[in-house]
Design brief:
The complex is a heterodimer. By secondary structure, chain A is of the alpha/beta class. Helices cover 42% and strands 21% of the residues of chain A. Chain A contains 8 helices and 11 strands. In chain A, the strands form 3 sheets. Chain A has a 5-stranded parallel beta sheet with strand order 2-1-3-4-5, with helices on both faces. In chain A, strands 6-7-8-9 form a 4-stranded antiparallel beta sheet, with helices on one face. A two-stranded antiparallel ribbon of chain A has the order 10-11. Chain A starts with a strand and ends with a strand.
Chain lengths: 223, 439
């Protein structure tokens, strides 16, 4: 997978590039809109991450030009502005997703992977497995080492989300928006509570712990 | 543009307005005056003509009854007694003047005459001097002249004064606007007149606009002040964590701890920044609200769903009571934020075994969302302050939180033209009631 980052802030570009490389991407970085557009046109990356405020050519115009030339490269927009109008404008210009700064890298990675997946139209799995834990998306049945585990709907939704992102850290914000479809931060740690309940069901009775907390970042389910 | 030019253009159009009105007014008056004069002159001439016509008839009758002699006697008698002497000439058929006034006494250009030829060929001619008439008319002309002149003067001064007084509110408006622009004091207001006319309407609207701008600007200023103040504390902590880690002995585990602390702290900064911006936007009216019909029971149920696990974990019962379908016009996401914040507070401050209920009901043209808890309650002296930014009561200090939740609730509800109220009894619980207009 080839990702192109068009971002003029070196620190941000560096950590995003490093993170994406660790996740298995080949990464190119362009420091301004003009250069970014050239690279995007010449190399046709699988995904582009475009900042809106760029020197020489702004992000919206880069996306616009790509689309005008018939390129369907999935684009994730990065912006420091969080108003709904800006989001709408970005998506109207041809962006596929929108992320507001500051962001958790885990969230950026999840979105980039979702874009790539959507573009490649990989078939949806019907069963998710991590180690001896299995989740059947059709029968909505969860088993671990053959033992059936009863989950409440909310716990099931959380586990499904974690298992779809198995091996990747998901942030509390991502969980809130996927499990409850709330896009603001309630002050109490709702996510912590639900995670600890889920942990009671899938990890407590077993020796090997699959659901891990990455302090300051979020949660991950892995072998 | 130079100031001289400005002053010039300031007087140009009121002057033009005055001149236009005065010209029309004066022209109208002159037409009336001329018409009056012409009609008066014509009617005076007509009267003279009638007088001499009548005399001619009378003389003809005397002539035909008593001949020349009788006529001469009558004429002579009349010439002596009548207030105004008439010119009389009787010429027989043989072109011989029989009776006549002395022609030398009469100026033929100022003589109005009428004549009648009788059957025997005698011509009777009577004339009347136009002098008296001319005299009246010339006096009349003088009067009309004075009148016209006064009309011109009145029209010009009146027009000027009227324009000035009509323009005064506009001038005040201009001055106020200029003052606002040059000084930046948006708390200025333009005085409104006692009438309910167009200018007052304009002034009123302008004041309203100023008020709106003022609210926005003060809101933004306040937001900036608050944000810079409120962010200092978490940023200090953030910096402290990093600095302490760097200053100490190199230690992997300690670094990890510090980094995790730093990430958590910066998340808190972000949440705080977003919340503060939301509050300021809502308070200043700058928050874009995408209003649509929203079922309050949906909002209540979703907020309860969100806190279900937290309440269970705390052994607090959480339920929803709805009565009928209550629909309000609101921004769904914002309203959910309000409900979530209230339920969050209620669950947070209710001890194990306690109870939180969310009720939805309608009252007149408003929908009510009521969050009732059996928690600690709020001391009376803290009640008025719970809506303040960053206020943390004695009880709440022990809990996690930013102290912004209720400020946000109030700001969002008020941006929806709604109200939020609280009743609380210490040790027995609190009830928060949000009222949102249905339309």
């Amino acid at each position: 997978m080839h990702a192109l980052i068009i971002e003029d802030d070196h620190t941000i570009a560096d950590f995003v590039a490093r993170g994406l490389r660790e996740a298995g991407f080949a990464v190119d970085v362009a420091g301004d809109g003009e250069e970014g557009l050239q690279v995007a046109l010449e190399q046709s990356p699988d995904v582009a991450i475009v900042d809106l405020m760029l020197p020489r050519r702004d992000g919206l115009s880069v996306i616009d030009e790509l689309r005008r030339r018939g390129r369907t490269t999935p684009v994730l927009i990065l912006s420091a502005r969080r108003s709904v109008d800006d989001r709408v404008r970005g998506l109207q210009a041809g962006g596929d997703d929108y992320l507001t700064k500051p962001f958790a890298f885990a969230e950026l990675l999840a979105r980039v992977q979702a874009l790539v997946r959507r573009a490649s139209r990989a078939p949806e799995p019907t069963t998710l497995t991590v180690d001896d834990l299995a989740l059947d998306l059709l029968t909505r049945k969860v088993t671990r080492g053959g033992t059936v585990i009863e989950l409440r709907p909310r716990e099931f939704a959380l586990l499904e989300y974690l298992m779809r992102n198995a091996g990747k850290v998901v942030s509390k914000t991502m969980i809130l928006s996927h499990v409850w479809e709330y896009n603001f931060d309630p002050q109490t740690n709702i996510v912590d509570v639900l995670v600890s309940r889920l942990r009671d069901r899938i990890d407590r009775p077993f020796d090997k712990k699959l659901l891990q907390t990455v302090r300051g970042v979020g949660y991950v389910i892995r072998q | 543009m130079s100031s001289g030019n400005e002053t010039g253009s300031r007087y140009r159009w009121p002057l033009a307005l005055t001149l236009w009105y005065s010209t029309l007014f004066v022209l109208g008056s002159i037409v009336i005056v001329l018409l009056t004069y012409v009609l008066t002159a014509a009617s005076l001439a007509q009267r003279d003509q009638q007088i001499i016509q009548a005399k001619v008839g009378e003389y003809a009758a005397i002539y035909s009854r008593g001949g020349v002699r009788a006529l001469a006697a009558t004429v002579q008698a009349e010439q002596r007694t009548a207030p105004e002497r008439l010119f009389v000439r009787v010429v027989s058929a043989g072109s011989e003047a029989i009776v006549f006034s002395d022609r030398g006494d009469w100026d033929p250009s100022r003589l109005e005459t009428a004549s009648l030829r009788l059957r025997d060929g005698t011509l009777i001619e009577v004339g009347k001097s136009t002098e008296a008439r001319e005299d009246i008319l010339s006096r009349f002309r003088a009067v009309l002249g004075v009148v016209t002149l006064s009309i011109v003067v009145i029209a010009l001064t009146g027009g000027w004064l009227a324009t000035q007084s009509a323009l005064r509110p506009i001038r005040q408006l201009t001055t106020a606007v200029r003052r606002v622009i040059t000084t930046g004091h948006i708390d200025e207001r333009v005085p409104t007149g006692p009438h309910d006319d167009d200018i007052d309407e304009l002034t009123r609207l302008f004041n309203e606009m100023l008020e709106k701008i003022e609210r926005l600007v003060t809101g933004m200023r306040g937001a900036l002040d608050n944000v810079s103040h409120d962010l200092r504390t978490p940023l200090t902590r953030l910096r402290g964590v990093a600095e302490m880690a760097l200053a100490g002995q190199p230690d992997r585990e300690r670094y990890r701890e510090a980094l995790a602390d730093a990430v958590e702290e910066s998340d808190r900064v972000l949440v705080m920044l977003n919340t503060l911006m939301d509050i300021s936007e809502a308070e200043s009216g700058a928050m874009p609200l995408h209003c649509e019909p929203v079922r309050l029971s949906d909002v209540a149920e979703r907020s309860v769903e969100l806190y279900r696990e937290v309440a269970d974990a705390k052994d607090v019962t959480l339920d929803v009571k709805t009565s009928g379908e209550v629909v309000v016009s609101a921004d769904r996401v914002r309203l959910e934020q309000v409900a979530a914040n209230l339920v969050d507070n209620a669950v947070k401050y209710t001890p194990a075994g306690g109870h939180v209920s969310v009720e939805v009901l309608s009252e007149g043209s408003r929908g009510l969302l009521r969050v009732r808890d059996s928690g600690a309650g709020i001391p009376a002296d803290e009640l008025p302050h719970i809506w303040d930014r960053l206020f943390r009561g004695d009880v709440s200090r022990a809990e996690r939180g930013l102290g912004l939740g209720l400020s946000l609730v109030k700001a969002i509800v008020e941006a929806h033209r709604g109200t939020v109220t609280v009743e609380s009894q210490l040790g027995r619980g609190s009830t928060f009631t949000v009222a949102i207009p249905s339309t």
